[in-house]
Amino acid sequence: MTLAGPARFQAEVRKSRFLAQAAPAGDPEQAMALLLRFSDPSATHNCWAWRVGSLYRSSDDNEPGGTAGRPILQAIDSQAVDRAVVVVTRWYGGIKLGAGGLARAYGGTAAECLRQAEKVPLVELVRLRIECAFEDLGAVHALLEQLQVRKLDESFSASGAQLGVEADAGVIQAFAPALRDATRNRARLLDLPPKPPAS
After folding, report:
1. Which one-letter DSSP state was computed for residue 15?
2. What does CATH list as the number for 2-120?
3. Confidence of residue 121 (pLDDT cuts 50, 70, 90)
4. Whether pTM exceeds 0.70
């Protein structure tokens, strides 16, 4: 699962204010850009974590080691959320929370933010390359539009055209035979993923 959009949750713990902000992030670069956007330079701490597939990072932002970033990452993982970033901003209220209190406050605020966030199934996107002759280019473009396959790029050579495309893995399975029929098996689809096993 991933997040449908941005989410926020605020809590007060022994006079310190905690604000959790979460958002979907498709790649590490987008995650880092979002955490910069969510961070408040006037706050005491901006602690964060993100996960994109097998990649992840977290930061305690000068809180004691392991009391903020790791609990936020655990909140993401415990709710099986992927491709997401969570930033928990703290405004210190004058009462020290101790290591355990900090971990509970950061992790709990992040977890509640994610619990309240709207989630959507994670769609596997597949990128492929189509090679076709000029005479088939119109049929290929019509098929892309019909099946809502996104064109990423297009280039031309003496022998024809190459198109980079992206779509949901399920759509690609329907696209392959449709492309074959539309071009009388002249177009080539490279890097076709294996067909998922029947359920």
Report:
1. T
2. 3.30.230.30
3. confident
4. no
